[in-house]
């Protein structure tokens, strides 16, 4: 049902002149999905309140309710007087969006679903130009039900698929998407527990936070855990994130809501504007999971917030994460593999700080193509705050095939890494390097597998020339023999 509805919506959107690409597709499908999900959530809350003999005050009321404007029914069918055409787009643009955006000012606090609704509709703009196409999309989405965990799970899986396609549509989208198998492996190694806080300071579409929520609420066999007594903790005091870009922030909020986190603790701000020397214990976290953007050029005033000043965005984020982690906290951070060996002052200083401030216990070397369209190789740094590094376990991921759009990374590719990491065993793809064995001047952390089979030695120029002359002589003899037969 969900797949068919999404396909029909996509077909409708191809005919909408205001929607140009995959980014627009996800953005515009999202706000409609979001409102239908909220409507079903409100009905569920109201029914529960009635059963418990309590009053319930809806968040969205009057003509702004889904069943008043998007899907008004009469005798079990769509009301013939339902808005369509220009009436519908005018209502959405001039009435609905401004009304919902005002929730940002009227909400009691930023940690409420009302505030998140206000932020979503402050950031987004309706791009439907045809009220007839919008009416078709509304009818498709109204046919979807979000009443059970299974239905919500199916919806969130489809939504993730669309986010992935958005990520592959261009660099702006690609910054938001990290392959979910890699995220799941990072979460398994850090092994968060209920009661710990989990943070991503560059959360994009909130993939790390959504997968961490799934990890904490799902058994290994895929069934749902009974977390009843911990539900309030998981909803309100576990997941935290920040995101600079407007569309990524909105997609992140909606992704978390669709995964079951009703009022995400996401903040729309540039994480790097915070002076890392001002971070207090109350602002630190137990787990950090992140894939910060790299290659950016941060302004001088932003660089002033860090002891190691550099324009490389990823290096600033890594400094932020080191200081944002509580003592004993665990982190897994994706970064370009050039961080391991660059000889500039910032790279060397940052490697030294990481080795001294935390135990960098694992480096996962990812193959080319792990991040589709990125064009760079990456590694994942796993570290624990509190004690300096003693030794580092390396694992060189080799799925045995070229990765690409039609052949992406999968969970099986990472199964051996997750298993071996528990004991940090040596093998053909894994080895340990002691801190004392590192070059003290450069702290070079380059991936150099001592267990890899030695490549065949290259032949000397003399051998190559001798071989060419022998083949020339053989060819000349064959031609001479042929001449003799003519």
UniProtKB/TrEMBL annotation:
Reaction(s) this enzyme catalyzes, per UniProt: a 2'-deoxyadenosine in DNA + S-adenosyl-L-methionine = an N(6)-methyl-2'-deoxyadenosine in DNA + S-adenosyl-L-homocysteine + H(+)
Q: Name one Pfam family in it.
A: HsdM_N
Note the superkingdom of the native organism. Bacteria
EC code(s) of this entry: 2.1.1.72
Among InterPro entries, the record links this protein to: D12N6_MeTrfase_N, DNA_Adenine_Mtase, DNA_methylase_A-5, DNA_methylase_N6_adenine_CS, SAM-dependent_MTases_sf, T1MK-like_N_sf
Species, as recorded: Tropicibacter oceani
Question: What GO terms are given for molecular function?
Answer: methyltransferase activity
The record places domain N6 adenine-specific DNA methyltransferase N-terminal at: 9-100
Q: What class of enzyme is it?
A: transferase
Domain called DNA methylase adenine-specific: residue spans: 151-455
Keywords noted in UniProt: Methyltransferase, Restriction system, S-adenosyl-L-methionine, Transferase
Tell me its family.
Belongs to the N(4)/N(6)-methyltransferase family.
Instruction: Show the SUPFAM superfamilies listed in the entry.
Output: S-adenosyl-L-methionine-dependent methyltransferases (SSF53335)
- What this protein is called in its record is site-specific DNA-methyltransferase (adenine-specific)
| One GO-annotated biological process of the protein | methylation
């Amino acid at each position: 049902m969900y797949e068919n509805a999404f396909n029909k919506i996509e077909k409708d959107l191809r005919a909408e002149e205001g929607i140009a690409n995959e980014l627009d597709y996800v953005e515009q499908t999202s706000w409609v999905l979001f409102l239908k999900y909220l409507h079903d959530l409100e009905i569920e809350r109201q029914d529960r309140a009635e059963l418990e003999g309590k009053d319930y005050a809806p968040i969205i009321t009057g003509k702004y309710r889904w069943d008043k404007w998007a899907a008004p029914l009469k005798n079990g069918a769509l009301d013939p007087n339902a808005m369509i055409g220009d009436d519908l787009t005018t209502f959405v643009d001039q009435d609905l969006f401004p009304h919902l955006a005002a929730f940002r000012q009227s909400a009691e606090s930023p940690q409420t679903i009302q505030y998140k609704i206000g932020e979503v509709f402050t950031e987004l703009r309706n791009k439907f130009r045809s009220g007839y196409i919008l009416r078709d999309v509304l009818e498709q989405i109204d046919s979807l039900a979000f009443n059970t965990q299974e239905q919500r799970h199916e919806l969130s899986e489809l939504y993730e698929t669309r986010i992935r396609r958005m990520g592959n549509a261009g660099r702006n989208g690609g910054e938001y998407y990290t392959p979910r198998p890699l995220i799941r492996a990072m979460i398994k190694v850090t092994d968060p527990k209920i009661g710990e806080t989990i943070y991503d300071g560059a959360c994009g579409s909130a993939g790390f936070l959504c997968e961490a929520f799934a990890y904490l609420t799902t058994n290994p066999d895929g069934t749902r855990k009974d977390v009843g007594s911990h539900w309030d903790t998981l909803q309100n005091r576990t997941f935290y994130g920040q995101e600079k870009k407007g569309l990524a922030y909105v997609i992140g909020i909606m992704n978390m809501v669709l995964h079951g986190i009703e009022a995400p603790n996401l903040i729309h701000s540039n994480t790097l504007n915070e002076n890392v020397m001002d971070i207090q214990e109350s602002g630190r976290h137990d787990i950090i999971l992140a894939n910060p953007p790299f290659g950016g050029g941060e302004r001088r005033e932003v660089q002033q917030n860090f002891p190691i000043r550099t324009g490389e965005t990823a290096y600033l984020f890594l400094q932020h994460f080191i200081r944002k982690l509580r003592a004993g906290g665990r982190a897994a951070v994706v970064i370009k593999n050039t961080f391991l060996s660059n000889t500039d002052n910032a790279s060397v200083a940052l490697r030294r700080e990481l080795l001294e401030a935390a135990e960098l216990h694992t480096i996962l070397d990812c193959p080319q193509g792990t991040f589709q369209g990125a064009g760079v190789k990456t590694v994942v740094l796993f570290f624990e705050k509190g004690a300096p590094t003693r030794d580092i376990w390396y694992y060189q991921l080799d799925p045995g095939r070229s990765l690409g759009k039609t052949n992406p990374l999968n969970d099986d590719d990472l199964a051996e890494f997750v298993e071996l990491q528990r004991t940090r065993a040596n093998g053909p793809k894994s080895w340990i390097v002691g801190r004392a064995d590192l070059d003290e001047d450069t702290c070079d952390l380059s991936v150099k597998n001592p267990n890899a089979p030695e490549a065949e030695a290259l032949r000397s120029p003399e051998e190559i020339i001798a071989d060419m002359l022998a083949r020339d002589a053989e060819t000349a003899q064959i031609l001479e023999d042929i001449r003799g037969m003519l």
